[in-house]
Amino acid sequence: MKDTFKHQGLRNQLAVVLKNKGVTDQQVLEAIKEIPRHLYMDASFQDFAYQDVAFPIAAEQTISQPYTVGFQSQLLEVKKGEKVLEIGTGSGYQTSVLVHLGALVYTVERQQELYKKTSKLLPVLGYKPKYACFGDGYKGLPDFAPFDKIIVTCGAPEIPRALLAQLKVGGRMVIPVGNAQQMMTLVTRKSLKEFDKQTIEECAFVPMLKDKNLKKY
Ligand code: SAH
Which residue lies with its CA nearest to atom 20 of ligand 1? Predict the structure, then answer.
């Protein structure tokens, strides 16, 4: 696996593109400049890794568009040492951005093939999450709750109740809500019973799937 000066140059350009689109958080831009996105993709797509586009990965899923990764990360306002729950590990690229920001990342993926792939890849690249598992993100991770931040990287038909319950008071959740098309939604927990919901902009993610056959983890 190779990372070259050429890749580095392309990443710097990508960071400028994202900045012009509204990703202005300096730490997030640093992460985009650092993380070798091409190494999270199939060889056949690697030449396009620094275009601001989503690409197919295994199991009919996608690696999110860099703008989306940057924008969601910015909305989350991650601080060093915070516990962050990620639903939809996918390629592990968003996971790595969160690790780079200093978060303790707990990540869940429902495609076993992707879970296995990232379990090998992330330690090699030096972006190891605190905990990763194969499971159903609708349930969250009750054993590790509560979380300072929650990020969902697949389109959820509705906000899963279990995730709301696992958010700390004062915490933030960034989640695309909807079916074919979604609304990026920022949820802040005001108190034990009170949640503030803000819709930000339209977006398009692969669906958050329900799977009753998944084994308990
Ligand atoms: N952040 C990832 C996005 C991958 S696409 C990246 O940039 O690569 C969204 C991911 O959510 C897919 O890998 C999909 O398998 C996963 N997903 C869908 N439904 C899920 C569920 N119920 N629980 C956990 N993961 C889910």
Answer: 208
